[in-house]
Amino acid sequence: MQLNFSGLRALVTGAGKGIGRDTVKALYASGARVVAVSRTDSDLVSLSKECPGIEPVCVDLGDWEATERALGAVGPVDLLVNNAAILLPQPFLEVTKEVFDRSFNVNLRSVFQVSQIVAQGMINRGVPGSIVNVSSMVAHVTFPNLSTYCSTKGAMTMLTKAMALELGPHKIRVNSVNPTVVLTNMGKMVSADPEFSRKLKERHPLRKFAEVDDVVNSILFLLSDQSASTSGSGILVDAGYLAS
Ligand code: NDP
Question: Is 234 a pocket residue for ligand 1 (Cβ < 6 Å)?
């Protein structure tokens, strides 16, 4: 699917590594101007070399005030990908306040904050827009030691619907993508045990995990006019896992 985002400006969070990084590259290749937001400056430096002209913004999205300073005046944005997230595994009985707060601040609160900034800008300009929240299949099914992470993604399902409801009248669509394991740094961490990884893969009807490109393609589809009547919805990129 060849999409053309020429003339549009996109903002991608968590742009330094993994799915976010490849999303920036795909949007850039499709003609969009891209604001790349991430936490580690060296990632943004190397990404800027690969994609000359992108606008790097280095900020910790878990810090509300720093995010306001970095993105409060970000200017016109037509496409938003809320992708940044962390996964800090802990058994339920050992979940700490620090891990809970940090996880919800990065994975969910920043989605509220960045989306408010971007959506308000779209409404002020009177232009349509599309927002994609990168969620997970764990919004629907849970795994041991992931109660906090799964809760952030479960909450994202309802946030996606709430945003779709309130922003729809302004012609802003909001959807999610919900992948299974993708072998980025995060995915490698959760599937580090080879026996666990093998068994988990076997539980997928397609007997595989998802590729970064599979997720990026779904993100781009939801950002594009090809999904013009889709809002408040989610695309599972789960190799069939939830069908079983
Ligand atoms: P990675 O850990 O590979 O990359 C995450 C990126 O987000 C990094 O560049 C990271 O920067 C950035 N980031 C994290 N915290 C912050 C922060 N506080 N402020 C700014 N940037 C931040 O993750 P993935 O690419 O795998 O994950 C992307 C999305 O996909 C996430 O929402 C994740 O939940 C979701 N997902 C991933 C799956 C997987 O198996 N990989 C499966 C299902 C969903 P830095 O490294 O500098 O902290």
Answer: no
Q: Provide the residue range defining the domain that includes 118.
A: 9-181+211-239
Told to judge if 149 belongs to the known catalytic residues of this protein, a careful annotator would answer yes
Cα separation, 127 vs 8, in Å, equals 11
Task: Identify how many contiguous H helices and E strands the chain contains and give both numbers.
Answer: 9, 7
Contact 239, 209 (CB under 8 A): yes
Inter-residue contact 44 to 50 (CB < 8 Å): no
Out of 71, 86, 103, 149, the active site residue is 149
Would you say 210 and 17 are in contact if contact means Cβ atoms under 8 Å apart?
A: no
pLDDT score for 1:
63
CATH number at residue 136: 3.40.50.720
pTM over 0.85: yes
Number of domains in the chain: 1
